[in-house]
Amino acid sequence: MAHLPNGLYDLLLDERIRTLALQLRDAGQADIEHLTGTARRQRLTEVLTRLLPELLDQAAEAEDDSAREERELALINGLLAHLRRSDTPASDWSAPVLALRAIYRNNARPAHPPTGLVAPWLFTAGRADPSLFAELRAELGSADRVDIVVSFITWSGLRKLRDVLDAATAVGADGQPRTRLRVITTTYTGATEARAVEELAGLPGVELRISLDGRRSRLHAKAWLFHRATGFGTAFVGSANLSAAALLGGVEWTVKFTQAGQADLFAAAEAHFETLWNDPEFQRFDPRDDSHSQKLRRALQQAKGNKGGGAETIATPTWFDLQPKSYQQAMLDRLAAERRHGRARNLVVAATGTGKTVVAAFDYKRLCEQQGGRPRLLFVAHRVELLRQAMETYRQVLRAPAFGELLADGAEPEGSEHLFATIMSVAARELLARHGADYWNTVVIDECHHLPASQFDAFANQIRPRYLLGLTATPERADGRSVLHYFDARPDGSPAVELRLWDALDQQLLAPFEYYATNDSTDLSAIRWNQPGELGQLAKVISGNDARARRVTQAVREYVADHAAMRAIAFCVDIAHADFMASCFDAAGLPARAITSATPRDERERAPRELAAGTLKVLCTVDLYNEGVDIPEANTLLFLRPTQSPVVFQQQLGRGLRLADGKDSCLVLDFVGRLQNDFRFDVLYRAITGLNRQQLIEAVESGFTTLPPGCHIQFDRVAREQVLTGLRQISRQTWRRLTAELRYYASTRRGAPPSAASRCSPTTTTPSARISSTGNRRTPPDPIPRPGAATANRRATAGGSSFSCGKHADRRTGRWGR
Predict the structure, then answer these.
(1) How much is the pTM?
(2) Domain match, 143 and 274 both
(3) pLDDT given for residue 306 in this prediction
């Protein structure tokens, strides 16, 4: 080693660097300690522990495992025999055993942290234990770079470290600070103090990034990473924020690990910090920019729920305040990129609650800016509630309170330039025949998983806008029919934009769910799923079933922690079932109401408000709340309508995942009856986890270990066996079913089935899922950027499944003209 950088060490000196280190000591530029007794034996043992794996790797350079085993055993046995001999020759180590502690210039000897630079340590704030505060001060005094991630920063904490921070960041003769800091924090709960953030960010060499969304608690990490050019970095991970209570007064537990002793852990911490640092949610904070300070103070007051007076009180947000969030901006950028590549008909797949309509509105706003004026717009959906919400969103985004007209529910628009219309109204008014297929510049189809339905399909085949945008959270249909061929094909066959449920949960854009599947013993084995008459068959078995209703109310008592705080939605089979369950909940002391198509409109609109206020504890509904209704306060979902449709399953789950103050998670109770062995559990659970069949079998058997943070899936014993039986049955595919699934898979990727299914090899496990090569999660190959080192490991294109096909038939083209 020709050069040893300045800084702290805890390095045992071998013959390679011994001479150089002793020369530096003699020049007054290095500290060297003579190790004796237990310390010497411990360090020599560490050397052997570190080198032994390398020696084993070198000895095991053979392709045959048996030969590798023989060589490894020969090495170990020879080493033991060698160590037991008294005439051991000289090695690379010589007496006395010396350890380099530091190299420095100009007598600027750095202080060693009390617990050293190699061994791990647990700080528990015990009376006789080393102080975390003293340790951090010592670390700050000797690090070259520091990375800090904390949930909040307070002035009381910062001022206790201010002197050592001032010294560390002081600018030298070269105009550069000795130590550079990067800090990540949040406004969560309003605990961060603006003065502390401004003072810290104002120090030389300090970069600070902050999340201004105080509703989201996704950043729970508290970590301090100290980097040294010497290679002796340290990391502190635990519960210590940059506050006085955390550093001195609180009962905080923090684990220290080191670059020299626990290299893998240190590297993982570095990688995760980099991921967070590059996450667009955390915005750069410049204390010299007044607008940054103003945004910070507003965000802190909003996070505190401060509605009182004062100079910094934030007014109730108006439609002038609406801006896309960082992940929505990423979606907009993706759409712009698709159009630059000549793809004008694009599908946006985004989880319920992530703001698909907001993205569509901002996309239209950008088209207005590019083209000038207000290009003609037709927004189509199948329900008037969706249209009303969409029109209000566009008005807010465009800052135009009179924008758009409704064509639905008896409303008569004065013009046709900017219409929000149901598909039924479009057909009944013969809009395309009257105005022409290319009349509208931009057409948006909401909940476009309905496109294969006859009315939507006819509309899609005729309309020819300049830009088409499809919105859905659930493109996978139970009947296997694809929607991708209605849109321009990307090179990899994926939608233009994808933000799947598990991605949104990973980013804490949605509340995490706790899903419990419990057996209800109802015999559903005769139900013909996804066939005409399915709901009628279910109603005969479930509606009026007192035994099942008792199991439902019993499960609510068992799983719901606080019935007074419960805000539940129960998804029922039909009106009679909803009425029946509402009476059952009332009888159990839980105020409930059935909300169905037979309910008067004013009552339907009032019921969600009563649920949010707690006047009602349960809303029993039939289909009405699957789409287009936002009740963020809903924290409990009761799946009382069995379904094999991934669309319905995911839509119902999405009703409880919107973020709300005081809502930590959503409890989901699913009631699993006796089903046919080939019931498609794989399709349902893939929709909410992204796992393929084999991964699902392993997860049900041993636990779901790759779920997003805060999420949990659990089955009782009977439900677990029922689900496992179904998954195993489906995994034993016949050739006929396999080729049918390959046809479906190909249609979703190219818009048409393969021309010769016989050329497909039957080695795939789940052709309709693209599986990560790491064996974790099904994900889009080119997703919206998001954080999480663990999440990043799940990213891959198709490759985890092994199947090969001949050429696919050409994709259908010419749906829309320019």
Answers:
(1) 0.68
(2) yes
(3) 47
